[in-house]
Amino acid sequence: MTPSHETRINADTQAASPADKRIRIFDTTLRDGEQSPGATLRPEQKIVIARQLAKLGIDVIEPGFPISSPGEFAAVQQISRELQNVEIAGFARAIKGDIDAAVKATTDAARRRLHLFISSSDIHLDFQLKKSRDEVVNIARAMVAYGKRFVDEIEFSAMDASRTGREFVIEMVEAVIAEGATVINLPDTLGFALPEEYGAMFRAVRAGARGADKVQFSAHCHNDLGLAVANSLAAIAGGATQIEVTVNGIGERAGNCSLEELVMAIETRKAAIGAETGINVGEIYEMSRMVSRAMNFPIAYNKPIVGRNAFQHESGIHQDGLLKNRNTYEIMDPEAMGIPRSMIVLGKHSGRHAIKHRLAEFGIVLNEEQLQDVYDRFKEKADELKIVPDDVLVRLASESTETQHDPYVLVDLQVLAGTQRSRIASVTVRERESQEERTYTGTGTGPLEAVIHCLRQAIPVGAAFDDLELHSLSTGEDARGEAAVSVVRGGKRYSGTAVHNDIILASAQAYVAACNQLLMSASADEGGDGTAREAKSS
After folding, report:
1. What pLDDT score was predicted for residue 5?
2. What DSSP state is assigned to residue 485?
3. Are 168 and 227 in contact (CB under 8 A)?
């Protein structure tokens, strides 16, 4: 029987066979990732992130560099004590003091390893270490042997392996295996390698180094040329069974191999790659957001998997296809990764079908004449805003039908701010059903907090304020800011956006839009007065 189109589309997403490789995911967000300029974490933040990493299903967590500071040591120690279901790696240079600190910090871990590194490339040896190859090999031997006195599992990294002569890499790997190293990491420290070169290095070392058949091989790739994920996949093809990653690809310079990109490449193409991981993909989005917030590193709109645009479509052709069958223009299910479903983004390339569909989601049904009027208004607004948010679309429908569809409308906002006092805010909101306008006041340590206190009184939806993103859309004194606010109720996230020269007003409008989306979606889902609310004919 010929397989269905749906079956053929999803053939690569089926479970890997028992013969396929299980790739261990080694996360170094809290060590290498934190080395990004400006990404420093407080010890308590590290612990919270480590808990989420364990929930994600990470095999090995590298919580930090214990010798670097007392706070770092304490964080590694607490994570080792608390997370008993995940292996903990203590990071150390090939120096006794580093090893002692790493061993002590990880003493209470249920499973632990010592992760030692030393440079291997001639440029590092000549200009940084100022040592000969023989001296470096002897140091590596001695320090692996020293570490083996304390721990059974030792990972050895030949730093800058991708720029090191193949024969010397093999010599160094043989030496540390002989002293008890159990995991061999061949890093592309500068993100220099091409995939075919990197994969070939793994094959050559595994074939040429005595004892290579008794150890695991690991890849640690940086993204200077944008090849970290491709190189990691090449390493898997070359025999690596562990990949070192960071959340959001955070890390020195251009960052490391992105956890979410690598995992979803394997998950989506596991039949072609012949591998699988133990990652709980449903926690990917929350993990990404947590790290982005803690490190104050925004996620690029076009970032694969977790970027704002990764599962959004503006083109009318794409939108029409998606509404008919998701597989026409998507190869992954965002909701399986915990990403809210919002695949249709309305802009100047959107068509009537997408506008009609989005309004119907809020229970607003227009006749053909009204839909054409909304579409004409929409096109004008799209030229101005680029992306037309839901609250603006609903407002356009209200103008076209002379009916207020929004449950609440922000009529007025005032904020009093100063350096020596609490911020005081006042908002006036009109409620749809009664058409009454009411004014509320509130205070806060910042103007936005004061405004949100007012709006929570005005719109009692019982939702938690989840997130706020602010983006500048232009430069100069008349610059406009875009605010994106999300609220959460019952485990569901609702979002609203607004654009204005006043970022406080934009944030307030976005919050009201998010609450309106919650209320209108709930009304439509429950078949309330919003469902199939046929607008009056013109």
Report:
1. 43
2. E
3. no
| pLDDT higher than threshold 80 for residue 1 | no
Instruction: Report how far residue 4's alpha carbon sits from residue 325's, in angstroms, rounded to the nearest whole number.
Output: 14
CA atoms 3, 4, 10, 14: torsion sign? negative
- Ramachandran assignment for 216, one of left (phi > 0), alpha (psi -120 to 50 degrees), beta (any other): beta
- The radius of gyration computed from the CA coordinates of the chain, to the nearest angstrom, equals 28
What is the number of residues in the chain? 538
pLDDT of 314 above 70: no
Tell me the CATH number for domain 316-401.
1.10.238
Q: The sheet that has 423-431: what strands, in order across it?
A: 408-416, 423-431, 437-444
- Return the H-helix or E-strand segment holding 364: strand 364-365
Contacts for 156 with CB less than 8 Å, ≥ 6 apart: 116, 117, 140, 144, 173, 176, 181, 183, 184, 185
- Residue-level pLDDT at 414: 95
How many whole angstroms separate alpha carbon 435 and alpha carbon 211? 79
Judge whether 39 and 295 are in contact, CB under 8 Å: yes
- Residue-wise pLDDT tens digits, 236-269: 999 999 999 999 999 999 999 999 999 999 999 9
Q: Is the pLDDT of residue 445 over 60?
A: yes
Question: In whole angstroms, what is the distance from residue 453 CA to residue 446 CA?
Answer: 11
Average pLDDT of every residue of the chain: 88
pLDDT bucket at 2, cuts 50 / 70 / 90: very low
In Å, the largest CA–CA distance within the chain is: 88
Per DSSP, 215 falls in state S
Q: Which fold has domain 408-534?
A: Double Stranded RNA Binding Domain (3.30.160)
- For residue 147, the SS3 value is helix
Element (H, E) at 183: strand 183-185
Residue 131 has pLDDT above 70, yes or no: yes
Give 376's Cβ-side CA count (13 Å radius).
7
Give Cα separations from 420 to 23, 259, 423, 445, 450 (angstroms): 56, 45, 9, 11, 15
Among 313, 318, 309, 505, smallest CA distance to 426 is for 505
For residue 496, the SS3 value is strand
Per-residue pLDDT for 527 more than 70? no
Q: How is the chain split into domains, by residue range?
A: 18-295, 316-401, 408-534
Which residue spans within 400-511 are E strands per DSSP?
A: 408-416, 423-431, 437-444, 464-472, 481-489, 492-500
For residue 117, the cross-strand partners are 93, 157
What is the number of alpha carbons within 13 Å of residue 193 lying toward its C-beta?
Answer: 30
The whole-angstrom separation of Cα 23 and Cα 105 is 27
Exposure b/e, 278-290, CB count within 10 A at least 16 = b: ebebebbbebbbb
What is the rounded distance in angstroms from the CA atom of residue 115 to the CA atom of residue 23? 18
CATH annotation of 18-295 = 3.20.20.70
| pTM for this predicted structure | 0.81
**Residue 245: which of 234, 267, 227, 261 has the closest Cα?**
261
157 φ/ψ angles, rounded to the nearest 5 degrees: -115, 125
